[in-house]
Design goal:
eight-stranded mixed β-sheet, about 625 residues, 24 strands, Spore Coat Polysaccharide Biosynthesis Protein SpsA, Chain A, binds 2-acetamido-2-deoxy-beta-D-glucopyranose, alpha+beta, six-stranded antiparallel β-sheet, globular, about 25% helix
Length: about 625
């Protein structure tokens, strides 16, 4: 027997004389989720179906409606049964314009990995039943964003796990008021924004009723800029709300004028084009260069997308340099990257290095080793051997050098991996900051899923100030840099770390050591990750390969302790190793390697940084149950 409680089912009918209403019916259940508005079915999701936007049907569904017409303007699904999928809720909920009508419901299961922070977020949004939802329980909730919850109904059945059952369906019916069209400033005059905000959601205060963001962002000059003629190229697909955040992060900072930005869009997406027209940003759409349907015998979609993305980068760079004939370089961003407030100032201060030092081939805004607990020094720059994407500057000269052999076809691999091969890198390096200057919002990209996001991307914060003075930029030139590294390594403030503890032991490294710690670990050649993988995974650093080093030297902080990890005997600095010193063990088997993959998912919780976590509350996932039966 199933015991259940119906916690709340409110109905609000009537209201103002002559006011217009919307009749809302929602069914949330094991196999079917239906939403009907004024007798028209707008969603019929069944378990196992693929929705129009490519998402799968199972999990927590969200519809948002135009508050004046009742038209559906956004549909999202979050499979919060899956680990870390709740991370995607945060940017979406915070991007819905106040005044919209939002409908939430569950299909099949949504609670298994619904973390406490995500439940709190939903409850704060008005979905109160989310805070008590259990496994295979159902809910339906209709609310006005930033206003009242019109109804929140749930069937809460505590026995579904022990009895291996599903809670009874929730069937919800309410009549809710629609707002008067005059209640929104952008509805009154027939401006460009009216069409956009009536049709689409996910732009927050851009579509605010009372005080929509001005369309012309105040232009702030970048003092004594040397990158005036260097454009920012944004590579985009069909993620307009993310693209909006990315563009806005540029427009709101010194130097970020619309005419500086060029967006290339792969495909024809009306919402993206309308957005760019509204923001007065120049763009070019490319027809997808490769057609999947002609490659039916290709089993690996990843290989296909790698080729398509590579081609897009090539064509986009070519276009950017053609449209800006005087630009010596281009700054690249992707639509799911948000620039820090000093992003342009960062490139302005470092551009001279790329122009003057032939041993460099990029300046990048991203530190692969820059997690919350491993990077604090906002003024510090480093040189690394691996090409780093995620917000970077490439010169015309180097593009011309690699343009002819750029990977364009299926099977030729990812452009970024390709740029890293010896032939292209030609022993050149990139300059990166210790604290990244971009924030990676995308939970899912071509290669990125939830656990990967939580382990390696979401925990990288950026700087928050517009004016950060970078230290000793001239010391990043090759000869100077080498000199400073030797000075650092041979200074008396160096302590060689000598412990037999495993790097995963919580006492392995002190968090507040005043001297610089040098760790030696085994590394036979540049691509040998057997020693690095364990050290990095245990300390919460990128461990999947040996990116981010300079001649075998990895520099990072562990909280307040400065660490220099030297790959022995590969590194040029191996000569410093005392004859007898403990080195962490190497990963010998694939089983050990797989164990590391499960470990890194826990890293965000193993390396807490209370003061910085405040800025990313959604990161703190507290649930993780590997697998479960659903149907
Ligand atoms: C949702 O997540 C669960 C757990 O990872 C997975 O088994 C299931 O296939 C996912 N469902 C969809 C529709 O993606
Ligand atoms: C795709 O998979 C089928 C069956 O597994 C195999 O016969 C075929 O060779 C594969 N095609 C390619 C291009 O790998
Ligand atoms: C831009 O770079 C130039 C040259 O390095 C420097 O003089 C100027 O102060 C920089 N401005 C900002 C805001 O970074
Ligand atoms: C790091 O240093 C700061 C400033 O001295 C201090 O407030 C903080 O507690 C230290 N953190 C750790 C983990 O020791
Ligand atoms: C870390 O060291 C700094 C400077 O020595 C000191 O001020 C601070 O209190 C220490 N913090 C902790 C948590 O030990
Ligand atoms: C490191 O520790 C080991 C054992 O604890 C000891 O034998 C060795 O001499 C130490 N090495 C150095 C350089 O202190």
């Amino acid at each position: 027997m199933t015991v259940f409680t119906l916690i709340l089912a409110l109905m609000i009918v009537g209201l103002a004389e002559g006011g217009r209403h919307l009749d809302v019916e929602v069914m949330s259940s094991r196999r079917n989720l239906r939403v009907t508005l004024n007798s028209v079915q707008v969603l019929d999701a069944r378990i196992g179906t693929l929705l129009n936007d490519g998402t799968q049907a199972m999990g927590l569904h969200l519809l948002t409606l135009n508050q004046h017409s009742g038209a559906v303007i956004m549909k999202k699904t979050f499979n919060t049964t899956e680990f870390a999928a709740g991370l995607a809720l945060y940017p979406v909920l915070t991007s819905i314009a106040a005044g919209r009508i939002a409908i939430f419901a569950v299909l099949a299961e949504a609670s298994l990995n619904l973390a406490r922070v995500t439940r709190q977020l939903l409850a704060g949004f008005g979905v109160h039943s989310a805070s008590v939802l259990r496994v295979r329980n159902y809910l339906a909730c209709v609310l006005t964003v930033g206003g009242v919850t019109h109804g929140d109904a749930a069937v809460l059945d505590a026995d579904t796990i022990s009895l291996n059952t599903f809670a009874s369906p929730v069937i919800f019916h309410a009549v809710i008021p629609l707002s008067d069209p005059d209640s929104c400033s952008w509805m009154k005059d027939n401006n460009k924004r009216k069409k956009f905000c009536s049709q689409y959601d996910g732009y927050g205060d851009f579509c605010d009723c009372e005080n929509p963001l001005p369309l012309d962002f105040p232009k702030q000059k970048l003092a004594n800029s040397v990158i005036e003629n260097i454009p920012v190229l944004i590579i985009a697909g069909n993620r307009p709300t993310e693209l909006y955040r990315s563009i806005r992060s540029l427009l709101e900072q010194p130097g970020g004028a619309p005419e500086k930005i060029l967006v290339t869009v792969e495909g024809d997406y009306p919402e993206v084009f309308q957005l760019l027209n509204l923001l007065q940003i120049r763009y070019q759409s490319f027809r997808p260069a490769l057609d999947y349907s002609t490659l039916l015998d290709l089993n690996d979609t990843r290989v296909f997308y790698a080729a398509r993305i590579s081609r897009h980068y090539h064509d986009a760079l070519q276009l950017a340099f053609r449209l800006h004939p005087n630009a010596p370089a281009v700054i690249l961003l992707e639509e799911d990257l948000i620039a820090s407030p000093d992003f342009l100032s960062f490139f302005n201060q470092t551009a001279f290095l790329l122009a003057s030092d032939p041993s460099l081939y990029c300046i990048s805004a991203w530190n692969d080793l820059g997690a919350l607990h491993t990077s604090r020094d906002t003024g510090l720059l480093m040189r690394v051997e691996t090409m780093v994407g995620n917000g970077w500057m490439l010169t015309r000269r180097i593009f011309q050098e690699v343009e002819g052999t750029w990977p364009m076809n299926v099977g030729e691999g990812d452009w970024d991996m390709w740029l890293r091969i010896d032939e292209n890198a030609a022993q050149r390096e990139c300059v990166i900051p210790a604290v990244s200057r971009v924030f990676h919002y995308g939970l899912t990209g071509a290669h990125v899923r939830g656990p990967m996001t939580i382990a390696h991307f979401a925990g990288h914060l950026t700087t928050s100030q517009p004016n950060i003075w970078l230290k000793d930029t001239h010391k990043l030139v090759q000869t100077e840099y080498e000199k400073s590294i030797y000075e650092l390594l041979e200074s008396p403030n160096i302590v060689f770390h000598n412990t037999s503890l495993s790097p995963c032991n919580k006492n392995y490294l002190p968090k507040n050591f005043t001297e610089t710690l040098v760790i030696f670990f085994e590394m036979t050649q540049g691509l040998d990750k057997a020693g690095w993988a364990l050290l990095a995974a245990c300390l919460g650093l990128w461990h999947l390969d040996t990116r981010g080093h300079h001649r075998g030297l990895f520099r990072f902080n562990y909280y307040n302790t400065t660490v220099l990890a030297i790959g022995y005997p590969f590194s040029d600095y191996s000569y410093l190793k005392p004859p007898k010193i403990c080195m962490p063990k190497k990963i010998e088997t694939t089983t050990e390697l797989q164990l590391l993959d499960t470990l890194v998912v826990e890293n965000r919780r193993r390396h807490r940084v209370a003061d910085l976590e405040e800025f990313l509350p959604s990161l703190m996932l507290d649930v993780r149950i590997p697998s479960f039966a659903y149907s």
